[in-house]
Design brief:
With about 140 residues, the protein is α+β, with helices and mostly antiparallel strands. Helices cover about 25% and strands about 40% of the residues. The protein contains three helices and six strands, in the order ααββαββββ. A six-stranded antiparallel β-sheet has the order 1-2-4-5-6-3. The chain is globular. It starts with a helix and ends in an 8-residue tail after the last strand. The mean pLDDT is about 95.
Amino acid sequence: MTPQQLAEACAEAMWGEDKASQGLGMEIVEVGPGKATIAMTIDERMVNGHGICHGGYIFTLADSAFAFACNSWNQSTVASHCAVSFLRPARLGERLTATAVERYREGRSGITDVTVSNETGETVAEFRGNSRTIAGTLVDV
């Protein structure tokens, strides 16, 4: 199995159990070794009292992309720390795309950066996640 095939198999296995991402209408756009792109359209239940997307939904989108990128090597991996900077508001009806790229992976630790952008390519948020591998795999190889 190539690294790309492994990443795709891991994503398929995770997606089948990821009720949170599915429930928010997220879609896997692309996965690869150490990277993932996930998209989501902002709907009325995601808008806060200011008429913009609640930051928690933007964080969740970024976190999902982070998870698919981190788990692309078939080692069960979870977040140990995450931080997000919100740079511009997202609005009802906008389609957001979170692109995760692994920056560092050694031993059981990793760092992955995620850029969340809107349909016009403007950056909405920047997310950095620290990951930690745990026991287990996603697929049998």
